[in-house]
Amino acid sequence: MSAAPVGEVIARLKREYPDAKTALNWSNPLELLVAVILSAQCTDERVNRVTERLFRKYRTAEDYASAPLEELEQDIRPTGFYRNKARAIQGMARALLERHGGEVPKTMEELVALPGVGRKTANVVLGNAFGVNEGVVVDTHVRRVSRRLGLTSSDDPEKIERDLLPQVPEEERTLFAHLLIFHGRRVCKARRPDCPGCVLNDICPSSGLSGKPS
């Protein structure tokens, strides 16, 4: 079977997951940027528990930039790798103050130039905070599901994104990632995908997987 038709994948998953959106809690671009940095190697649920208090304490880039590093480390400690994350957040905040008047920039080039911000993080912020659908977020679920659907054969996130960009309509790119993440978490799981219960069963080239991880 050839690759699943992207238009049909999107249409079916939209019906299946009408509430698809980022699981991170945020109310402005800076909060989203911090939350995404914290989400590395950490569940969204744990990040949300940490940011509930964090975002009341740190409201601006200046707050993060001027905080004692050890204090910031302890504030985010439950998310893991807290020393590296604290340095990244503080470096990012200082760069925002120095280069962007304390505001989160709205371009890929400016975002990835910030400490601790890679293309995946930039895609999340651009798509969700600013409605800029420049790229496709490729996390572990997007990687797995897009491979199973035959939309890419790569394991490398950057190559996967390059494969997806010409296939996914620009206006759907942010939502497309959310849909695949929802589907990956609920149905197309790594070890035991529920192929019989999958709405993409008849168009997926990997339909019938018997619990094999991929």
Describe the structure.
The protein has 214 residues and is mainly α. It has helices at residues 6-16, 29-38, 44-57, 61-66, 69-76, 82-100, 108-112, 119-129, 140-148, 157-164, 173-186. The chain is elongated and about 55 Å long. It starts with 5 loop residues before the first helix and ends in a 28-residue tail after the last helix. 54% of the residues lie in helices and 0% in strands. The model is unreliable at 210-214 (pLDDT under 50). This is Endonuclease III. Its EC number is 4.2.99.18. Keywords: 4Fe-4S, DNA damage, DNA repair, DNA-binding, Endonuclease, Glycosidase, Hydrolase, Iron, Iron-sulfur, Lyase, Metal-binding, Nuclease. InterPro entries: DNA_glycosylase, Endonuclease-III-like_CS2, Endonuclease3_FeS-loop_motif, HhH-GPD_domain, HhH_base_excis_C, HhH_motif, Nth.
Please write out the topology:
Blueprint: H1 6-16, H2 29-38, H3 44-57, H4 61-66, H5 69-76, H6 82-100, H7 108-112, H8 119-129, H9 140-148, H10 157-164, H11 173-186
Helix pairs in contact: 2-8, 5-6, 9-11
